[in-house]
Specification:
Elements (H helix, E strand, L loop, with lengths): L2 E7 L2 E6 L4 E4 L14 H23 L3 E13 L7 E13 L3 H15 L1 H6 L4 E10 L3
Parallel strand pairs: 5-6
Antiparallel strand pairs: 1-2, 2-3, 4-5
Helix pairs in contact: 1-2
């Protein structure tokens, strides 16, 4: 896997992935940024969210759970001193569907967290990661 990070100006960069997608990353105003894009550490949380959402969706599909929507919200705390790593991360899943089994959701979240989500496992080296979920019944 490869990526290219190219300076735009100030502390803003265009990051291009191997698959050809580009996102602008920028620093906070107080750090010389111009708010042209998310901060690098925000992108780490987005990566974690996307990784675990993908896993949970895939696992629930294989378990034949009728999911019509999946949302992941993440909150995190960072260390107060440099390098200001994440020290705690909470991942909240909101799963909407029909007759979703609690056991299937719990299994999917655990498998993602402990086996499949590379981002979660890497970030777990410095942060305590917790998970919870809500299951909403789809309205027809």
């Amino acid at each position: 896997m490869k990526a290219e990070i190219k300076l735009i100006d100030g502390v803003a960069f265009d990051a291009t992935t191997q698959s050809g997608h580009t996102v602008t990353i920028d620093g906070a105003l107080e750090g010389g940024g111009q708010n042209k894009g998310p901060r690098p550490m925000e992108m780490l949380l987005v990566g974690l969210g996307g990784c675990t959402a993908y896993d949970v969706r895939t696992i629930l599909r294989k378990a034949r759970q009728d999911i019509s929507d999946l949302k992941v919200t993440i909150s995190a705390e960072r260390a107060s001193t440099d390098p200001k790593v994440f020290v705690s991360i909470h991942v909240h899943f909101i799963i909407t569907g029909e007759n979703i089994k609690v056991s299937a959701v719990e299994k999917a979240i655990n498998l993602s967290a402990e086996k499949y989500c590379s981002a979660s496992i890497m970030l777990g080296a410095t942060a305590t990661i917790t998970h919870d979920y809500e299951i909403l019944e789809a309205i027809n």
